[in-house]
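Reopening this ticket.

The earlier resolution said the output was attached, but the attachment link was broken on my side. Pasting everything inline this time so it's all in one place.
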Amino acid sequence: MHTPNGASLKSQRGQAAVESAIALPMSLFVILGALQMSMMQQARMLTDYAAYKGARAASVGRAECPIISRAEVAALVPSLGRADNVDTWTKTFNKYAPSPSFNKDPQTGLPVVYTEYKIENKVTPFDKPLQPNEQPEKIHLRLHYFYQLRIPFADRLIAKYFLAERGLEQWAGTVDAINPTKETTQPPSRSSGPDVVIAKNYYNQGIYVVPLQASWSFRMFSQAAKTQGGCQ
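Inline output:
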């Protein structure tokens, strides 16, 4: 036979267990989410820096894709892996930028960055002296960095939110948050944009990414091989 005090104590213990079961997942998500968001903020700042480095490399390197992408990947190394000393930085860079397929993720074969550029105010010949009222030849570059979220649980929710916020909600909302490789919908067409196609392919391989974007303009200091294009 239980006493009233014993029954009350047992009831309080049961209530505490229920409250803990409800609060623990939320607290865990807040902690993991804050950690992932801080890492993503670092990647966002590095994306701006990588866009600058890519535009500068294009300016002096005739807008050649290998030169552009290698400069961008080099700037993004701290968000791709270890870069606390020369050896670890070099190892991480070589992992993502070994040779002709320098821009591919070693596990998926998908681009780490995708770059679009356009040359404006084309000057012919390139070394022609400009008049005071003439505009110099410039490159306008947009970088898409497919940042891989690495914190478990938080990666699924944050990736789906950001993809929807980027205007990809037509298919991001249908991706299975538990097992994205079971997604059976057809991938978007090329008309949807390369960033949509690449992000979708990452999702289909069970990898959660956020397509971070940054733009930069730079005066051309070399004659461009092409006036526009995309690098991946």
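Reporter confirms the inline version is readable. The helical segments are 4-60, 65-80, 86-96, 154-172, 194-204. The longest strand covers residues 138-148.
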